[in-house]
Amino acid sequence: MESRKAELEKLILALAAPYQQELDIILTAPSFKNIFSAITVISEIGINMEAFPSAKHLCSWARLTPTNNKSTGKKKSVRVSKAGCYIKPLLVQCATAVVKSEKHHKIHNHYLHIKKRRGHKKAIIAIARMLLTALYSMLKKKEPYNAELYKKSDAFPAKREITVEQAILLAQLQGYKIKPAI
Questions:
Q1: What pLDDT, in 10s, does the model give residues 79-93?
Q2: Where are the domains of the chain?
Q3: Distance between CA atoms of residues 120 and 95, nearest Å
Q4: Which regions of the chain are under pLDDT 50?
């Protein structure tokens, strides 16, 4: 049995050899220490992130986003759908490992904040969604995980300026009708 397992692992590693650069990138992410976890991610979502217009689309495809079942002001259900028999359980397992880890304090604090309001299961799904978003960004930019870069990407620049035409266009895109000044 052990020899068959070793043969199978050798075959999987041989098939994954062309994707070594992407595998190395994924292995830098929090809780991705096993090469087979990285291979599972590559086999599920691929290496071409152009298939997904944004990280939100990828999270939706992996069924890590809550449903929006609302009718006449009544909120019926916000549960996460049951799909993704390979990628979703793997990400939940990685999220659980990252939360228990001592290395990633920001992720652990984010988990505790959500857990206090929404409960353990929803908090783990939120962390799994964070990991998938990070993986999307890492594979799209072809760069390893760096928590500092993700912190900086969330912050707005200190000086933000736009022209009057850009402000008008932005207001129109949000649904405002612009009246000419008299």
A1: 666 666 688 889 999
A2: 2-173
A3: 11
A4: 152-154
